[in-house]
Amino acid sequence: MKTRALTMRTYDDHELWNKLKAGEEKSFSLLFEKYYGDLISYGNSFYRFPERVEDCVQDVFADVWLYRESLQEPNVVKAYLLSSVRKRIARLYERDRIFRKTTTTDSIEFLFDFSVEKELIEDEEIAESVFYLNKLLNDLPPRQKEALFLRYSQGLGVEEIAEMLDVNYQSAKNILHRGLLTLRKEWKGSFSIIALLSSSVFKFI
After folding, report:
1. Closest CA to 90 of 101, 77, 80, 81
2. Which residue from 146, 172, 142, 144 is spatially nearest to 159, judged by alpha carbons?
3. Short-list 185, 166, 122, 174, CA closest to 148
4. Alpha-carbon distance 63 to 7, whole Å?
5. Which residues pair with 114 in a beta bridge?
6. Can you point out the beta strands (E) in the chain?
7. Is pLDDT above 50 for 5?
8. Closest by CA position to 205, among listed 123, 113, 132
9. Tell me: the pLDDT tens digits for 53-85?
10. Exposed, middle or buried: residue 59 (CB in 10 Å: 0-12, 13-18, 19+)?
11. Number of Cβ atoms within 10 Å of the Cβ of 141
């Protein structure tokens, strides 16, 4: 049994998705364990009530299991789960009348700050550059910050980001471009912005 469980951990998301669709609880559990923390953090960036965010994330997984037989296989499983949490948060806003009964997720503000893992930076020059980039990132409009987070922290493609932000492909591309353009305009470091964005020194809180 232990060997089988370890073997399952080598499966990619699509294999796990297809297995859970077939009713295999272990595959469902592995996806839950793999992405639960990311989904909680992402949800907390929109809604400042952690208990309700946890309920949203658990509801998303409950629906995946309950309706597994009728669900289509997503292009990117992680993007599907993140998007599902985003939509549930939007419905929370709607029910609380904060959202003025809108039926889209356009007005959700991404209320997060990029943070730096100080203990991961040993080189003084790199540390100085990273802290400066951290400030530039947090000064960006929320939509651009979210797009950059999804692209470089979560590894999503432009198509998945467009779907999550409820915009077309070109609009998502423009949002990313404007964010990067602002960073490059203000950037005075000797390191590549893209390399730093893709590194492990930034975390999401």
Report:
1. 101
2. 172
3. 174
4. 26
5. 204
6. 114-116, 202-204
7. no
8. 113
9. 999 999 999 999 999 999 999 999 999 999 999
10. middle
11. 14
Q: Which amino acid is at 202?
A: F
Entry field: residues in the chain: 205
- The two tokens of residue 159 are 């198509």
Is there a contact between 46 and 108 (Cβ–Cβ < 8 Å)?
A: yes
Angle at 56 between CA 77 and CA 116, to 5 degrees: 70
Cα dihedral: 66, 67, 73, 79 (round 10): -70
What separation in angstroms does the CA of 179 have from each of 57, 129, 186?
28, 18, 11
Max Cα separation, the chain? 55
Burial of 42 (0-12, 13-18, 19+ CB in 10 A): buried
